[in-house]
Amino acid sequence: MKLIHYLFLISFLCGLHIFGIAQCTQPEPPQITNIKICEGEANIPLCANGSDVRWYANSNKTGIIYYGNCYTPGEHVSYCATFKYYATQTINGCESETAQATYTIECVPIPPTVTVIPEKISENEPDPIFEASTIYQNQRFRWYDENYSFIQESNYYEPNRLNGLVYYVSQIPYGCESYKIPVEITFYDNTVNLIKDKDLSSIIIYNTPHNILFTNTKNIKFIYIYNQLGQIIEISDKKELDLSKFICGIYFLRIETEKESYLNQIRIPCW
Predict the structure, then answer these.
(1) CATH number at residue 256
(2) Nearest to 29 by CA among 9, 6, 52, 4
(3) 47 and 95 inside one domain
């Protein structure tokens, strides 16, 4: 603490007289907890323990920006960098020296690299293994299902096609999580199924990246596409269905004929 003396002088007609001396005990600077967040997160306040706290843009106590114990940086503080602020406290009219606070926004790391072993499988082969790797030394890989629900944290993941064909992975090398990238189980042949019936003759359903093609539409009344929740998202009576408006994943195709109904699973790959 510092003792600051103020000398009050009053001039009277008979000369200069000393009126009195006042002392100011300068308090210690306030205690501040530094903040570190990830890019894209909402800004949180910097808080200082002290009385009559004042926040400054520099250590010279010029450019005061806020009065109060907690100061939240504005929207302009949104990119990855370290910002510095300064705070003082005032007790009995005496203001302390400044205490420095750092507000760090960490950059979002790049996503990991994923190797699928093997890259493609046939319908009767076991599911592949997903292996994640990265350029960072300290990393944690997080795996999610197609609904972005967390599955596990590990370098490897063994998917199950019965639970879905599309999964997601991210990494956390230094506390901030990267964006999630899709990883897919890929089959050699995209032909989904062959339906044989005395009325339909044969209908081969070709599931290409952009559409579904029916080679024989004889006796077909309607074609329905369902999502995995069982909701109808498309009804058509055309020979070709456009898939470009749907996100990648598993869907179900129901074909209505004059007499019967046929159900098939289709896959829209991620490209």
Answers:
(1) 2.60.40.3080
(2) 52
(3) yes
